[in-house]
Fold this sequence. Notes:
By secondary structure, the protein is an alpha/beta fold. It has a single domain (8-283), classed as 3-Layer(aba) Sandwich (Rossmann fold). It has eight helices and nine strands. A five-stranded mixed barrel has the order 5-8-7-6-9. The protein is globular and about 55 Å long. The mean pLDDT is 94. The ligand O=P(O)(O)O[C@@H]1C[C@H](O)[C@@H](CO)O1 is lined by residues 34-35, 63, 86, 88, 117-118, 199, 220-222, 259, 262. It comes from Oreochromis niloticus. Residues 29-281 form the Nucleoside phosphorylase domain.
Amino acid sequence: MHSKEHISHDEYQKTADWLMSQTKHRPQVAIICGSGLGTLADTLKCQDSFAYSDIPGFPQSTVQGHAGRLVFGELKGKTCVCMQGRFHMYEGHSLCKTTFPIRVFKLLGVETLIVTNAAGSLADGFQPGDIMIIKDHINFPGLVGLNPLCGPNDDKFGPRFPAMSGCYDKGLRCLAVEIAKELGVASILQEGVYAMVGGPNFETIAEARLLHRLGVDAVGMSTAPEVVVATHCGLRVFGLSLITNKVVKSYEDTESVNHEGVLEIGRLRSHTVQQLVTELIDRMEINNNDNINKSI
Length: 296
Ligand SMILES: O=P(O)(O)O[C@@H]1C[C@H](O)[C@@H](CO)O1
């Protein structure tokens, strides 16, 4: 079964060493671009970019709207690495593979991870085009044992039983709210709970109603495993969901969701997401980049 695959510390290190031999950038911030949000990477200055297919050990992106490039560069004076395309469990990757880049980022010296995704809304007040700061998540695959941390624990990365209660950094969430006000986009900003489901099918109406009753505000098919692995190895995490559709909850509703519609809303809102992330990176405090391989 997928979740049983184990990746050794050496394999993460080999990929990190290869990247460090190919670029002078030593990133402090890593950004994962969700469906339709890959243009964020284009704003980095002094870019070095690598196709995933050229990076030793890296999985490949197979989903439309996920270019499959790792881009290093500067944004507002901070060194960043941006995943233009992420890996999903439904593509057939093991959870270790979907989260492989996170531990590589840790070895590169990254201290903050920004995750973005496209998601459908369950919350009654949310509209397509809204941007939701992720306050917390429900990792449905994780709750039934499909967790990237299953298998032997690598103590060099983190503890066997990591806490997840504060995994979305409160300081960064507050800062993002302030920034949204200043940018004049507070009216489309929401905060809520993201739930990961396995996908690739969108939800049935009964599943949508269940998620709604459970207090889920937005549902998608990614992010939670990345955040679990990032939190395990001590990264600070900030997450945004772009609400691309309302999840159909009524048998009277004749609309249905599709991936093209998801990408279209991504295109419409990518500029605003970019502005928010750029300002956040500008204003977040970062320790000096002296933690490469520290305690690893
Ligand atoms: O990578 P994300 O989570 O943004 O992708 C979402 C979930 C599915 O992969 C896809 C559905 O349209 O978008």
